[in-house]
Specification:
Length: 451
């Protein structure tokens, strides 16, 4: 297709953007220009803003390293306009690596979705979500996982530095593709890797470990039928594929009766319109008699989440049905579920960081796809080890436990402890602890003063 200046200008609708487009289509804004076949590329700069853009004028495809991602952003369109005005400024050259990555991520065809997310009646969508065991759906999900595995393998073959140079739009395109294949768990894991790359984290060991773990998980999901039956539920869970109906779990899994203390509850919700939205609620429980931790997850599509059946910091007498698999944590409350009035609920005793390392290693040995592990550490002293870095130290063996999460939650530990010992419950991911609950312990004569 032979573009003209008038045709290029029609790609940008706003007059202000068209004026900026004419300004950027000049030689002093562009360097490292080149073209090959139907593609052109270049590096642009205006003041302190620097970007890289590319255009395939034959197929009207655009890419840019800016936040717009090249979806007809002013930078990529300005590149096309400059190519129309001065084609002699674009020498024939071999495309850079990122051009090949951009072209490889063009979808060959639309993903054959089972339903469209927009404009679909709620009951239709709900029925689709409640029937996740269809063989055709699993085959399509495995097809999406195979595409991700090939993408990750190509990334590793080009070398880890290539991950830092990929546009945000390239990562987001791959993440959206996974969501279209109904693999939200893999999409979230890839998003975490992308955030690690673009947050300035240049630790090659951590990046390689994250990519390797995602690659192994992807291959495990592709070969799901060949895995041991005890490991399959955890792989589905990490991939975001729930193939077990809640009624089936209640009917087939034995119930665990206990007095369950609510340690933490987090709710996320997003209203996408007047009639629908989504919410996600995760609740950690601890059994006073069995000493077991349980995670109750409620996810649904609705305008507002239903009333809470489990209240934060409540104590309940009832039965939990755990999902099948090795080292189960996910559970569903049974029909018998009653609130228990108590002034001082019994809480988990907790242990030292060395006990944490031992229990986590045993849990990973039983379930290699474990993402987080619930732990209670006691007694611990929150200490400030830097200008803003808060860690937990055991007063006897002086073992340090790094923390993750938002800084206000970490500073909350300092304020709650006030220099005294605490019991801290949280999620351990093998590197750091995400604190979710804490309570004050009585000071003992053996507890040294805070550092």
């Amino acid at each position: 297709m032979n573009w003209t200046e008038e045709q290029v200008l029609t790609l940008i609708s706003y007059q202000d953007d068209q004026n900026l487009l004419r300004v950027l289509a000049a030689a002093h804004h562009w360097t490292a220009l080149g073209q090959a076949k139907t593609r052109c590329w270049g590096k642009g700069q205006q003041g302190e803003l620097v970007w890289r853009a590319a255009v395939d004028w034959e197929h009207s495809r655009f890419a840019c390293s800016c936040q717009e991602g090249g979806r007809r952003c002013v930078h990529s369109v300005a590149l096309l306009l400059w190519r129309v005005r001065a084609p002699h400024q674009f020498p024939q050259a071999e495309p850079p690596v990122w051009i090949n990555w951009w072209q490889a991520d063009w979808p060959a065809e639309d993903v054959p979705g089972r339903y469209q997310r927009r404009g679909l009646p709620y009951l239709w969508w709900r029925a689709a979500l409640e029937q996740p065991q269809a063989p055709a759906l699993l085959a399509r999900q495995q097809q999406g996982a195979e595409a991700l595995a090939a993408w990750l393998q190509r990334l590793l073959e080009h070398g880890l530095p290539c991950a830092h140079y990929l546009f945000t739009s390239l990562w987001q395109s791959r993440i959206r593709r996974l969501e279209e294949y109904d693999l939200p768990g893999l999409a979230a894991a890839l998003g975490q890797v992308e955030a690690r790359c673009h947050a300035g984290a240049l630790d090659p060991d951590a990046l390689l470990a994250a990519l390797g773990e995602l690659y192994s998980l992807t291959h495990a999901f592709v070969h799901l039928p060949q895995l041991p039956a005890a490991e399959q539920p955890a792989v589905r869970l990490r991939a975001g594929v729930n193939q077990l109906d809640r009624g089936w779990v209640r009917g087939m899994q034995p119930g665990v009766a206990d007095t369950w203390l609510v340690l933490n509850q987090r709710t996320e919700q997003d209203a996408r319109g007047r009639w629908w939205g989504w919410y996600h609620r995760a609740t950690w429980l601890w059994g006073a008699t069995t000493g077991r931790y349980a995670l109750v997850v409620e996810t649904d599509i609705n305008v507002l989440p239903p009333p809470k059946r489990i209240l934060p910091w409540g104590q309940y007498q009832g039965i939990l049905h755990f999902y099948p698999g090795a080292g189960p944590l996910r559970a569903i409350p049974g029909k018998a579920w009653e609130w228990q009035e108590t002034e001082e609920p019994q809480r988990p005793l907790g242990g030292s960081p060395w006990q944490l390392a031992y229990t986590y290693a045993a849990a990973v040995e039983e379930q290699p796809w474990l993402s987080v592990w619930p732990v209670t550490l006691s007694p611990m002293l929150p200490v400030l080890t830097g200008l803003t870095d808060v860690q937990l130290v055991h007063p006897l063996d002086q073992g340090l436990v790094p923390l993750r999460g938002e800084l206000p939650a970490q500073w909350q530990l300092l304020a709650t402890g006030g220099g005294g010992p605490l019991a801290v419950f949280g999620e351990w991911d093998g590197r750091a602890l995400l604190p979710l609950a804490q309570w004050i312990l009585p000071a003992s004569p053996t507890t040294p003063p805070a550092l």
